[in-house]
Amino acid sequence: MKNDRAGILIVIPAYHESRRLPSLFIDIAAHVKKPGGLAGVDFLVVDDGSGAEEVDKLRSLIAAHGLGEIVSLLPLSVNQGKGGAVKAGFTQGLGTGYDYLGFMDADGSVSAAALTEVVEYLQKCAHIPLAAVAASRVRMLGRNIARSWPRHYVSRVFATFVSFCFGVQMHDSQCGLKIFKSDVLKKYLDAPTDFRWVWDTELVMAMLHGGETVHEVPIDWREMGDSKMLFLHDPFVMAAHLIAFRRRLSEPKR
């Protein structure tokens, strides 16, 4: 990917997502045409080892939706997990001159309009040393969070656990939209140790532990279903990973 101007690269990790990505591509294509909509934002779909047939489908989808100028594809030969796919995209993006690198989920739960809001917030905060912005699913007046109550409560319990475990006041550690300042990201890219579900949470916690400034921005969010997360298993595995990571952060540097 060639970037002739400073801007933002959004990585979209994808594992067998050719069925769900079209709705996101339609949303992006429509939003790009709006005045001020996603100007300066490029996208990199990282296929996480889905295989040659799936990669061909993704290439066709990008072309069919007329997104060849702003959406590129990075196929990985081996499945690395969501975190591993995001890291691969970030690693490529760091070599192409973007000011910010972020990621968003492939399922379309985060809309192009929500992405635009977060990008605009970054632009408004250009005067402060902001390392990252994390989207947050806050049930509040003026926001539309369409989500099943069981998943909402599990998410709230998990976010509370993260805040307690790391001693931070973060409302939503798991939302699938985060954007990082590239020069800060370079310092922390190798900090996370889990490459499945909590890679980005560990990255944010490492930044906060290092004294960086991270803000949350409330967005609208819509649950799309077909989640690859095992509802009654993965949160406990995620919690175990984060406890181990917290201990690692607390260890004195040698």
Helix content: 40-55%
Task: Please give the largest β-sheet.
Answer: 7 strands, mixed
Class computed from helices, strands and strand pairing? alpha/beta
Low-confidence stretches: 1-5
What is the approximate shape?
A: globular
Task: Name the beta content range.
Answer: 15-25%
- What Rg, in angstroms, do the CA atoms define? 17 Å
Order of helices and strands: EHEHEHEHEEHEHHEEH
Strand segment count: 9
Q: What number is the mean pLDDT?
A: 91
Number of contiguous helices: 8
Q: How do the strands line up in the largest sheet?
A: 3-2-1-4-7-5-8
Rounded to the nearest angstrom, the distance between the terminal CA atoms is 38 Å
Give a structural overview:
- This protein is α/β, with parallel strands linked by helices and 254 residues long.
- 41% of the residues lie in helices and 19% in strands.
- The protein has 8 helices and 9 strands.
- It has helices at residues 21-32, 52-64, 81-94, 112-124, 149-166, 182-188, 199-209, 234-250, and strands at 8-14, 41-48, 71-76, 100-104, 130-136, 145-146, 177-181, 213-218, 221-222.
- The strands form 2 sheets. It has a 7-stranded mixed β-sheet, sandwiched between helices. Strands 6-9 form a two-stranded parallel sheet.
- Helix 5 (149-166) packs parallel to helix 8.
- The radius of gyration is 17 Å and the shape is globular.
